[in-house]
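Re: your question from the hallway

Yes, I did run it. Sequences:
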Amino acid sequence: EQSPSNQTSIAMMQEPQEMVEETVTVEEDPGTPTSHVSIVTSEDGTTRRTETKVTKMVKTVTTRTVRQVPLGPDGLPAMDGSSPMGSYTDSIDRRYLKNGERFITPQASSTLTRSYNSYNDSYPESHEGQYRPYIGHDGYGDLSDNYGSLSRGVNYRPRYAYVPGGTYRPDDGSFTLPSRRENYGPVAQPQVPVGSSVDLNRSQPERFQPEPYGLEDDNRSLGVDDEGYELDPDYSTVNRRTSAGVPERGRPRKGRGYDDPIETEMVEERIPYLHGGYAAPLAQPERGSMASIDRLGKRSPSIDSIRKDPRWRDPDLPEVIAMLSHPIDPVKSNAAAYLQHLCYENDKIKKDVRHLKGIPILVGLLDHPKPEVHRKACGALRNISYGKDNENKVAIKNCDGIPALIRLLRKTNDMEVRELITGTLWNLSSYEPLKMVIINHGLQTLTNEVIIPHSGWESEPNEDSKPRDAEWTTVFKNTSGCLRNVSSDGAEARRRLRECDGLVDALLHALQSAVGKKDTDNKSVENCVCIMRNLSYHVHKEVPGADKYQELDAGQTMGTGGSQKKKKDDAGCFGGKKAKGKKNGDLDRNFDTLDLPKRSEAAKGFELLYQPDVVRLYLSILTESQNFNTLEAAAGALQNLSAGNWTWSTYIRATVRKERGLPVLVELLQSDSDKVVRAVSIALRNLSMDRRNKDLIGSYAMGELVRNLPSRQQRSAKNLEEDTVVAVLNTIHEIITDSSENARSLIQTQGIQKLVAISKSSQSPRETKAASHILQMIWSYKELRNALQKDGWNKSHFQSVSAAPKGSKGTAGRSGYDDSTLPLVDKSQDNEKSGSRDMIPMDELGPDGYSTIDHRDKERKYKASDNTGDASEKEPLKNDTNRKNINRSNRASVNLVDARDIKPQPVDSWV
Amino acid sequence: QKIEIHKLRQGDNLILGFSIGGGIDQDPTQNPFSEDKTDKGIYVTKVTQGGPAEVAGLQTGDKIMQVNGWDMTMVTHDQARKRLTKRNEEVVRLLVTRQSLQKAVQQSMMS
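Structure:
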């Protein structure tokens, strides 16, 4: 319909229809912003240019009216009177053509351009502020495009069939927008993951619907039911104008204040001329960007400038909010859509909406039966809920928005609405106090309505059904993001999630399906792994019946472990899918000595969290994914699981080894990402509670660990953060504890140099402390002193002033958050003998131990059962540090990156 | 309407010659054939020319109500597919309905 001249514009317009995926950066306008410049020429020759910027995801549609300030006719800078005149005529003509759509013809642009140019020239500074921006010479090139787009925009407007008779006056801004939105259809507001309250405010107001409507349509009033308002044939516009004329003029009156005083004046002056036809652009005060488009030609108020003035909008907002309660449904939905647009990335407006009590009304609209209405209302809420200002989120919760959203989720089948709902919930979940509320109202519903169906998990698998694959839909992503956030809310939240029927099962199923399809970098997977990590935190303390599994001192297992474990057959644990029945019988028999729980039925629900099967899953994720957050979370999950002193942890630690997980982790130490290195280090540290692990880690990982330590000389030294360095140091400390072999490895990998450097000159006290502890420990191995001295080190290097007295190894530099007290360490540090004592057992286990084990491992694949208990107990660190604790968990509140996914395509199967 | 389709053997597979869409696990709003966009039933989305389904009278847009007596109105997409592609069945009997039929029924009811 519209001039195909603008391919680009067209393309842009199209997008909304297709639900283009990325909307996020709304700011940036994925497409090219289209500026629609409409020049309205009034009879009096004033040419007004309205420029509306329409960008797909533009957050604001700015209608800029560039007033070609009275040129000529007004006697205002008339320098270029002539040229403008020329344009005027053209414009005028155009204007009266289809609804004054000027843009329709390419000529328009040319004219415009011309005028523009001339205007620019003619307007000296005074106008610059005003016009330059709009005009932008560079814009000229675009003009044609703009025109095209404009038309387009205009066209679509007509979508709104109803023409409420344009009773609405004006505040125009609304017009355009709402209509636009309507056209959009799924206005997917980009959702931003709420992390730190990221909001997806992106409303897509700007999307132009590429509706091919004829110009005539423009007549319809858009905007709050003011469809016809602008677009009405000149005539109606005229009407408006006139009436508006005065009031418009009021723009200035309203105190909207034009940014540019000059402009204001001009407007006033113009006004008299306006009657003829175009109400001064002023007439349309705010229209929002769309407005101008709609108005095409009708008015070209110098909106843009005004638009930027917040005062300017105020009056509009109450009206829009009032429209939300209008009896005519389309008005409601348009108003909601417009609100969505207004709120897009505009914190002030969001706040105003709240103050004007718009939020309860919107929440009320969620229950409205018409999809158009509740869809737009939800979009508006989504935008409102996004942002740093959490008051809005609270407001939504206070008017029972959360249960309303959940209700709607249960009722609707519309994918877009579901996306909006879950997006809003994701936003809301980023605010701590609301997390429990969301859990209370929505946990089971979200699980049943979204997680389970989209994960492909079947609670009652049919005999002939093969496991379904997960569907990575936007709804799933949003929901998993929301659950990720809420799962970080502490022990009670974790408990609820663990006990939620089907949740853990479905998540695990989804993750396995992702691994199977090699699609592990997407956001949904990241969210799921984070949830798993969070739920694995403190499992050994928090799951019901946990105390049954607590092992007594790990030391005892060492003795018992050996022979018996060899006989154990892990088949049961490893075989079968998690969700299916395990061969528990075997398990029980074999693990009697380990005191593993007897299972009478398949593991399900939260029990799956710590079944050794998950190890394989996490390791696969660690091997395949490139997404740092996902890697960190998977390592974190392993860290959490291998922490603690209970039977399952023991089992998990051994399982990691058997599943050849240690090399995977060691390799990840090479990662460039701080968080990954940190998580992996701590996981290794916990894993080394298992004696055999410790030995293996000591031999194979030491090099990488040392490589991660900062060094001034080393050119390729990684520049890791303090926390990461501390974590690595702590890990080193752990593995050399009770193992002089490992201490020797440390020496061999040039670690001493770095450690001494750190202990003497690091800026961070924690690093210094940690390094000193390690050095002290090394020194405590008397047998190594020769080697050290040969390398040129002497005692002074190892006894650092800041180091706490021998007894204090407790916090090897960990400032308390790490609750690991290492009994082993204590032991060894306290006496020299301990060093040697340690030697002995080490030797025994030593190389032989390794080879045997490895051998065994190889033979048995993953069935090896042995599991040497670890003497030291370490409190698993969930996070590196306390302070990080929150962060970590809350990492969940990742921002949603915008989300507009293409609607899931319907699936077709051939039979 | 009852439609009986005799499957055709193609290599290792028995095919019917049509494709289906829908299911309780699918998004019903994308269904171009259904009158009610919340209908999650199984619909025939394509029929191969000359295939066994076409020969038997199946048309695109038909909604499959039953297959060999098994209900198809509340099944997942996969379940539906499975019911149609059982290897040990040579013939499938479908109970289908289509808009034209529905209208006919309505009209007869109203008159």
